[in-house]
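tool_call: predict_structure(chain=1)
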Amino acid sequence: MRYIGKKFLTLIIALLLISIVVFLAFSILPADASIAKLGQNATPERIAALRAEMGLDRPVLVQYWSWLTGAVRGDFGTSYQYTGTGVASLVGGRLGTSAVLSLISLVMVVVISIPVGIFGAKRRSVAGRAAMTTLVHITMGVPSFFLGILITYLFSLILKWFTIGKYVSPAEDLSASISYLVFPAIAISLPKIAMTVKFLVSSIRAELHKDYVRTAYAKGCSRNGVFYGHVLKNSLVPVITFLGIIIAEIVAGSIVVEKVFSVPGIGLLLVTAISNRDYPVVEAVVLLIAVVVIVINFLVDVIYQIIDPRVKL
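tool_result:
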């Protein structure tokens, strides 16, 4: 419990610091919110009136506290681009799509990387190991957005398996929605699969050289019995922590991929809001992504400590 308490305290501090950075990053911009909303040609009188209406003439600390307390309640203000529309409703309407996309990507990573990692670790052929290592490093080095462009060109423009921009919400057609999201999920997950395979192979090979493995063989245990009963189990423990990092990268990495595939998630919303200087939306999405990443890492640390009680802060 002491370990979890320290981790939770670290979580709260990290969230507080991120909220400060996010707020100040947009507070120090040359073009403040009033200019972004009225435009560069607005008169000084209109700008001053709007600044007073929006509370921008107050001290920065007062503005931050007002924004933070609103954010805790789920109130991020109203959008500049969509006049009168609450930021929370905009983000909430896109959040489900991004969550499903991230979930599909994570399932692909787990389902593919673990069997491939086991297969690669058990390979004894030097040529086979070299080929697999080369393939893994090439896949790791290709950015998700570039994979997205290649997948779009191949499966949309040439094979006509799906049409860019024709995303269907799950409420209308669940199967069509998932079928569309599979393609951006492939672009997101492929580099992560390669990273997980490399990490798992290294973990298994390191475990195979430990003394207890040689002892088990000396006692007459079968190779598969030792591997699946002991080696694989111990090798997967550090992989859990690594998957936490992968989940965070999936959440953050979906931003550009959503733009490539025109998926109406929070990533596309963020890119559009940045282009239109819709600062309340940008602040809300950036803070949301940061919160998700930090909370995921906290949960992974807690799970890791439960699995292996020897872990200390």
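agent: Residues 204 and 235 are 5 Å apart (CA to CA). Proceeding to next step.
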